[in-house]
Amino acid sequence: MKNKIDFTQIDIAGEAPIAEPQRQYYFIAKAKEYVESQAAELGRPLTFCVTTFGCQMNARDSEKLAGILELIGYTEETEEDKADFVIYNTCTVRENANTRVYGRLGQLNRIKQQKKHMMIALCGCMMQEPEVVEKLKKSYRFVDLIFGTHNIFKFAELIVTRFQSERMVIDIWKDTDKIVEDLPSERKYTFKSGVNIMFGCNNFCSYCIVPYVRGRERSRSPRDIVREIESLVADGVVEVMLLGQNVNSYGKNLDEPLTFAELLREIEKIEGLERIRFMTSHPKDLSGELIEVMAESKKICPHLHLPIQSGSSRILQKMNRRYTKEHYLELVDKIRRAVPDISLTTDIIVGFPGETEEDFEETMDVVRKVRFDSAFTFIYSKRTGTPAAVMDEQVPADVIKTRFDRLLKEVQAISSEVCSVHEGTVQRVLVEGINDHDSSLVTGRMGNNLLVHFPGGKELVGRLVDVYLSEAKGFYYMGHLAENYQS
Ligand code: 5AD
Ligand code: SF4
Questions:
Q1: Ligand 2 pocket test: which of 149, 202, 210, 376 has the largest number of ligand atoms within 8 Å of its C-beta?
Q2: I want to staple 192 with a disulfide (CB 3.0 to 4.6 A). Which of 46, 57, 239, 415 is the partner?
Q3: Does the N-terminal peptide bond of residue 21 adopt cis geometry, omega within 30 degrees of 0?
Q4: Alpha-carbon span 18 to 27, nearest angstrom
């Protein structure tokens, strides 16, 4: 997408256009001028580093940031301590993510003192919290640019503002109904890509800060989504991950409403696209229609990430999740009947306010009944501004820690059993890259999201091949190419 526009044709001496994305193209061309003159002064090309905290949504946003930085002349991505432009795309779902950002900023300050032209930018969910911005304004004056989750599309414009003003630039929007299409973006992988289908969340789970920092639910139009995927496929992509906080409520607020299942049917038709993944699904909105589409589809991977959060119906109610333990278990049964080889993964929070030993045992019970392929386990983190933060009976830290360890042990034991059942079978995998530890091996991902390492070279990267799984190693496999594999 980034190569389609000839930035040299943009008249940067004139006024900035009002309409998007043309306005941003203008600022990209303008920023490029500043960066080129800096590079000439230093006698070398400038570099950048984008650090992503948090979820897949942030990872996708970071690709957009990297795309813009490359276009304005930061030619190469490098390590943080060497880069001329450093940006942190932050997360605030749990407190420890915030603590890490402050810690790393201290280090960046020391680096910047040796390198005055260095730019430091912060964006993402944490910046949507007013207390955070106050703290940064007071104690982290060396930061150049701060923006939030709603105006990421304005990155180039904000960089120009910073170049022109020589002072810290802050631009945070409370919410937006705007979706800007056709911005440049850089992809981490040539053969797979995340695709946003919606932004924001309307659920207000009582522990969660996301609805406050990501705003209300907004769906992209199906035409824009299909067009983006078609152009990705033309560019070599074979697998897409459809992204949204709650993909099951996709399309409800469109002018012409469309369900998520209907959107999937449209995407399935795209020729050349081989695999479709999506996340995250909220159990309360997972429809029978979606299960049907998954069962019929040749392209949707047999993997469902279905966060349960707690196995206690009493706690689920306090969490405002709007389903019960029984409803969740029935849903799992229904999905397994329709898609027998489905891999199920989940998120679980331990130590939500008021969680008793009995409540926790209900969670353990669900874990034993469902036998998840894997589960992400989190210690409850109190987020200021959420209803749960002011609930009585916060659970003592030592009790939470003991429960968390018990849960993790159970989850891991089950997961390693469940994940081993494919030993001795042949599976279709998408080869994602050369193995990190042994360069004679490549690493491929199966439809169910498990990894397999097997002998092979870089010519296999980005290809779908059949692999024999010779040995289960708990959470991954060792294997070799099946005899008559087809590319
Ligand atoms: N504390 C702990 N975990 C949380 N999550 C969201 N908010 C909190 C919180 N305050 C977890 C949920 C969600 C995942 C992305 O993060 O399990 O599904
Ligand atoms: Fe947070 Fe609940 Fe929305 Fe997920 S569905 S982002 S947990 S409020």
A1: 210
A2: 239
A3: yes
A4: 12
∠ CA 122-125-128 to the nearest 5 degrees? Answer: 85
438 vs 212, 215, 244, 428, 465, CA distance in Å? 44, 44, 35, 22, 20
**Measuring CA to CA, which residue among 96, 98, 73, 75 is closest to residue 88?**
98
Q: The pTM is what?
A: 0.92
Give the ligand 1 atom nearest the CA of 347.
17
Q: Which of 206, 214, 246 to mutate to test the pocket of ligand 2 (most atoms within 8 A of CB)?
A: 246
Partnered with residue 471 across adjacent β-strands are 478
pLDDT tens track for 370-401: 999 999 999 999 999 999 999 988 899 999 99
Q: Do 215 and 149 contact (CB within 8 A), yes or no? A: yes
**Dist. CA 234–CA 296, nearest whole Å:** 25
Closest CA to 242 of 270, 278, 295: 278
Kindly state the tokens that stand for 64: 């957009």
